[in-house]
Design brief:
Strand order of the largest sheet: 5-4-1-13-14
Protein name: Bis(5'-nucleosyl)-tetraphosphatase PrpE
Distance between the termini: 31 Å
Helix content: 25-40%
Radius of gyration: 17 Å
Order of helices and strands: EHEEEHEHHHEEHEEEEEEE
Organism: Halobacillus yeomjeoni
GO molecular function, one term: phosphatase activity
Strand content: 15-25%
Largest sheet: 5 strands, mixed
InterPro entries: Ap4A_hydrolase (IPR050126), Calcineurin-like_PHP (IPR004843), Metallo-depent_PP-like (IPR029052), MPP_PrpE-like (IPR041780), Ser/Thr-sp_prot-phosphatase (IPR006186)
Number of strands: 14
Amino acid sequence: MNVDIIGDVHGCLDELKNLFNKLGYEWNDGVPEHPEGRTPVFVGDITDRGPDSIGCIRLVYQMVIEKKNALYGPGNHCDKLYRFFLGNPVKEKHGLETTTAEYRELSSKEQKEIRHHFMKLIDESPLYHILQEVNAVVAHAGIKEKDIGSVSKKVRTFVLYGDITGETLPDGRPVRRDWAQNYEGNRWIVYGHTPVREPRFVNKTVNIDTGCVFGGRLTAFRLPEEEIVSVSSSMPFVEEKFRY
């Protein structure tokens, strides 16, 4: 298995298509397929903040559920949208409001279809992926070595939100520990969640959320090649959103 692990898309559909093109994918009935059979793996947070979250849901659903030529794991934004679709009380802010606004513009038939597709995508995807063939784990905000293979409530919180302390920054973002500094495993941990200006390699971990929706880049990490491929964002650059 050769994989292309794709960082946080956040509704940036045009950049996602550009990235597939740069990675050498060919389009068949609107779905990207690699001539050498490579497998895209989405690190989560395909929606919110960007201009076309509904389009991203449609494309990822086609790839993962219909064509079965890609893998997906949820991020914290995906989890919140899922709870919105369940009818749970969630605050429509921190990006969710852009997705729900798009959703409300759809016809009732399209709304039902998108809701069904997104919930099926979540329901039929694992919390994180253990990719034995390329000696890697793909988890939205990361995972501790000792927790690989577990899906407890504590592990779920870590995978979706990172190593949070319970404190918040002045802008409302949670304070997170830099868990990658203490990682000593020999498997790649490929994650996103926290925007960084460049892919951040620490021990055998790499953060590939290069902040596409904040004007950075959309990045893929190719395994087993250990190669970074990125495309530029069309969004305005928002410097304060980048941690490193």
